[in-house]
Amino acid sequence: MSKRAQKYSAYTDTWQTLMDVIIRSASLDKNRKLPLVLTSLAELPEDNSDGPAISFIHGPPGRNIALAIGLRAALPDTPMLLIMNADAVTLGMNHLIHAARRNMGMTLLILRSEVTDAVTASPVQRTNWHSFGIQDCIEKRATPLELATSLEAASVSRGSIDNVDQLSQLVNDAMNTPGFSMIGVTSDKGLPLGVLSRTNLPEYFDSYNEWAEALRVSIAEKAAEAIEVVTEEEPAKSSRNIPRHEVRIAGIGGQGVKLAGSVLNIAAGTHEGLWTTQRGEYGSATRGGPSLVEVVAGSKRISYPRTDTPDVLVLLNQNAANQFADSVKPSGQTIVDADHVKKVPQGAIAVPIVRISVENTGKPIASGVVSLGCIAAVSDVVSLESLKKSVAQKLPAKLVVKNIAALVAGYEATCKVLKGEYNG
In sequence order, which residues have a C-beta less than 8 Å from that of residue 26 and are 6 or more positions away? Predict the structure, then answer.
């Protein structure tokens, strides 16, 4: 057999084994939903099994934990199973710490190098797990499983793809455990030490998981309390039938663009009872760099959070207009700042948004809030009253009065522009 054929055979066999583990673990609890599997490995497996249809998401290296955190919010009852290699602890270290120390509900299978090499047809060079120079004499770098225990993850264990029954049981137990679980996966039943852990099984991890029992009970109780609070406080969904509605606000850092997205998101979701998503982009500069926020709202769940063709587009400077003016829907509305956008796109209306912000608050940072007033004037998806409530919730008390005044001023100015009555 050629080396290429041997490599492909190992790849196929390893993926098939992992698929068998996933399917077996899913079948051990018939009352649990099927897991959603996220992987950052180079190839996705072929579906050669006779088991249930498992959904896979192929994400960028190091970012699947962040993706799982978002999916956890959208799908609170769906088990999240992540299959990753060293990128979970190199590229994705901040996301790993965030998820583990807050015990977010997901199970991470972190594959040792020999497993990854067999799975990946084109293996990449990985970061070595050793320290250099004097640091190595002073301290040892924490390995992934030891890191998980130091962060007080709900469950930590190791298993081997050579012992499918044991690994399937570990995955099943982890998916039934409230909170964050990590399983180190090797290809040797002897569970060799090294990059995953320097601690022998079973004593250490058995002791840790026994200690973590009280932690898991606490996590479950807090989750139940959170569900009760959400159930009690969640407003009734809107009786209006609102089609998907996209809003984009683009300007520069220091104009409150990101804040505007949060306020609009709360207004649409909490006070209008719609499904909403929010995403943003901004440059490295705190002030003066490009900044935009996108909010999607509607009566149905939002499956795609980007605003490729916004229904309402607010442009606060010329650079934003140059980049996004052509993106608005044919039936949409573009609003530009009258002082900072000199080349007004065809069909757009011009409102002195930044000037209104300075007049009412003394600073341009309320321009985003003024923009929301403009949006309320051209769209009936979010009312001015809902935006006022959202401003009061989101901003410090000492800033609420002036920002609501700026919001109302933006609304009134836009209404006058639409009627041809504005002389500002």
Answer: 32, 34, 35, 51, 52, 54
